[in-house]
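sry for the spam today, last one i promise. struct tokens for design, 142 residues
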């Protein structure tokens, strides 16, 4: 443990270093904006994201939402003293996607001592395709 919180740049460097060992590499997900007020993750649409009907699987939208919210939360709390983890997520899928680039944004709605609630939207070609809320738990290390 350290006495001071890591800088935003330290957390970003850690996340970028870990990306090749996560689902991000497997699916081609990129973090394009790191921020406490908004984090953006993106992925090019391709068959690896499809369900059997030939459209992007709804779980991909949820994965993108929670990923953006998790990173945003990690940039908000002192990650040397607290862990963040998805606690609850709900999503409404609005339209099917078969091509393009998915862009997911997470923005904080409420920041408390034990949780942060995010508004999450996924767009493709500037059109909203899924929207939701994600609650991230903040728990101190034991």
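last one done:
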């Amino acid at each position: 443990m350290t006495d001071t919180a890591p800088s935003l740049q330290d957390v970003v460097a850690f996340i970028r270093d870990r990306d090749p060992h996560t689902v991000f590499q497997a699916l081609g997900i990129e973090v394009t904006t790191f921020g406490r007020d908004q984090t953006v993750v993106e992925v090019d649409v391709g068959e690896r994201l499809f369900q059997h009907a030939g459209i992007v699987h709804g779980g991909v939208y949820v994965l993108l939402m929670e990923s953006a919210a998790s990173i945003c939360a990690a940039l908000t709390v002192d990650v040397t003293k607290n862990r963040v983890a998805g606690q609850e997520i709900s999503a409404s899928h609005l339209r099917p996607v078969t091509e393009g680039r998915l862009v997911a944004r997470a923005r904080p709605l409420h920041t408390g001592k034990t949780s942060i609630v995010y508004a999450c939207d996924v767009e493709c070609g500037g059109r909203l395709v899924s929207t939701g809320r994600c609650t991230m738990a903040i728990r101190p290390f034991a």
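DSSP finds three helices and six strands in the chain. ok im logging off now
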